[in-house]
Amino acid sequence: MQHCKLALVTGAAGYGKTTLLAQWRQDRLMAGAEVAWISLTIDDKGYTAFCGALFEGLRRLGIEVDIDPLREDSTVPAMEACVAIIVEAATQLSKELYLIVDDYHHVEVPAAHKLIQKLLEQSPGNLHLVLAARVNPPLSLTRLRVMDQVVEIESAELPFDLAETRTFVEENLGTDRINVDELSLINDLTSGWPSCLQLIVIMLKNRPSTRSILNDLVWRSSDLQSYLSEEVVAHLPDELVEVAEALSLFRRFNAAMAVAVTGNAQAGELLQRMEDENLLIYRVDSEDRMTWYRFQPLFGEFLSARLERRKSDIHALHRLGAQWFAAHNCLTEAVRHANLGEDTEFAIRVIEQSAPATWSLEYLAPTLRLLERLPEDVLFSHQRLLFLACITVSLTSRPGRAKAWLERLQASDLSEYPELASGLPLIQAAIAVQEDDIERSIDLLEPVLDAPMENPFLRYMLLAALTVAYYTAGRYADARRLFDIHPIPPQDRGNDMALVAESARLTTYIIAGEIGEAEPLICELLERSTREGGHRSICTNLCASLLADAFYELDRIDDARELIANRLGLLHSSVPDVIVRTNISRSRLDLLQKGPDAALPFLRQQIAHLRCLGQIRPVAQLLGEQIRVSLIKGQRNQAVELLQSLDDFVRDHSSEQGGRAELPAIAALARARILRSEDSQAALRALNKVQDYAERFNRARLGVLVDLLSADALEDLGRSEESLERLYRAVENGRRLGLVRTLLDEGALSEKLLTRLSQCPLEDQLREYLDELLGKLAAPSAPSLAAPRSRRTTTTGQTPQLTPREREILSLVAQAMSSKRIAHTLDITLDTVKWNLRNIYAKLGVSSRYDAMVWARNHQLID
User: Count of domains in the chain?
Assistant: First the structure.
């Protein structure tokens, strides 16, 4: 700002404009500058009143304007004379001068804006003007922008990100007073709106029990309703408020839709006014040429509540929206709003008439809601709907229902629907994947892999399902080769099912234990999935599960927890592998951050839920994890009882092939843990069974853990040389794969074994890796949420692996570009830029843009 003539801060009510300027003012004062501040009110909207306030602010800077605004007119000569006096006086002063004008949006008369325009055009280099307003003032800034003489901060840059929300909440409530899931929910609800966060913090401080009603915040918080009524809505025209209330029912809207739904021919112009006035409305990324908007979530709920209190015909508005969406091929939204408008027949008709090429994963949620209210006899009479129903339930942990419906579909005449008949093997294979019958899935899919399939949704569903089947069987090379033989073309890289297929390919690296190689690839796919489908899309959730596992393994504990916070679908309803991975990650994060008393109740709850769903492998995995945590807590008798339950479960459900071949290994690993302290020979025999499974299915991460535990058993048996060999192999493979937590999570056992190995002669790379592990063992196992992330790569001597997008963003940071400008330059969202910057900071072990830039230049990552 010290090199610019103008700083313009614009944003909606409660976005922290005044707070930001107050903090910045303090910084300037400490730097020795002269700073004056004036706050305008509604009484200053006229020219005379505005000039009076402006001259008073200038006087505080030492600039005397000997003009009586009550006697002055607003002619051009009078303005030029006034500006000349100001410029001459400022030139005579040696200090940097800053005049802050808060709430500039109260100024209404054109003459006042013209006076500011002339002052900006003629002001000397030491006079800086700072304007804060809710709307962009009618000033011509093109010349200033070209000359790089203006700093602009807009609504998109003012909200808190998740890290800032966490800091704010903890500073006001104290650490550990709110969990990560609740924090994520608060951030999602508020979209980082500072005033709203302040109200929530006050509510939680005064009434801690309100944590349970965060989802109903608008309905329960009278303070929030009052704030929105008084600060946001009170001064708006009734016509604008009515249009906003009607549109609040929709997740996104545009001008044409607004006219159709509200019946107001001026609705498009009113939308533009909402945007111009920063009325808590945001643009939504879209591939079409329409300009789409959405409301800030809590403001949207507030408007919906007002609409309901007015007893409007909400169902009619949903039906109008459904018809508009259907007419414009927005089929997911058409089905959703037909459901909400209780027009089941229209929802069915939309699905029946939709072209297969338009199918997407977004259909799943509205289709599930439709199925919940649809009698089965109606469902069975609509074959295309029944086909989609079978796909939907087969992908969402409901294989039993999917099988029953599939039988009805197969018994019907599909001669009129050849695309449905060709998709039957896919449904059968998806059911087989849910039941861990991997060989059957492969047998069903391989014969149709090269068959022509014009429907991209089904084509990529086949690719994803076969990839899952291959990696579950340990056939990673076959899974990756699929994408060489059947590459995803560039035009389909944004297709949601294609993104799911790519996530399945990257899962092969996680399952194989190749964490170091997997992490940058998953980061890139998560960024792309978020950009294409949003923060809560199915593929974004799948990538979050993968990356949380990778981050946990890399000891980036806070990042892992933030990734899976508030993603309940990953814990409850997905394919077995995703359910296992996410639940284990969540349990281990609870164990590290809160202790066994938090992890055990979570495991018991999830085991009960997954038993009800018939999820065999996830239940076995969580029972094994429950045994491990019980032993950590010192509850050996409880662990023995759980092992008996696990053994019975394995006896009833295990198999030699497919996913359930893992069950005996899960039980054997649990048995080895229990027997470790009393019968090392028996423990070693159990571990050999686990080793056989790990080698047969290429589970390298599991192999490292087995080697570590076997080294301990062998040492107890007096076989020191064999013990050291197994220990060396565990650490060498751990270094090669990029593992950290696998070698740390055994606690005291890990420390004892790794300390023993450190006393042996080792190569430099292995020595550095081992020293890092021992250093982590000596530090607290549960780092503070506010603690800086450690950087593994600096201790191992390896260069951090930045994705191409991260390098691109870092190079633009080095050009002093703002996050918003980077987003415009790369044609990505501001959230995507912020997400990548946080990931860069974590990888480089820094905390600011400047530090990241310096580190990257020193290590020749950027020019």
Answer: 5
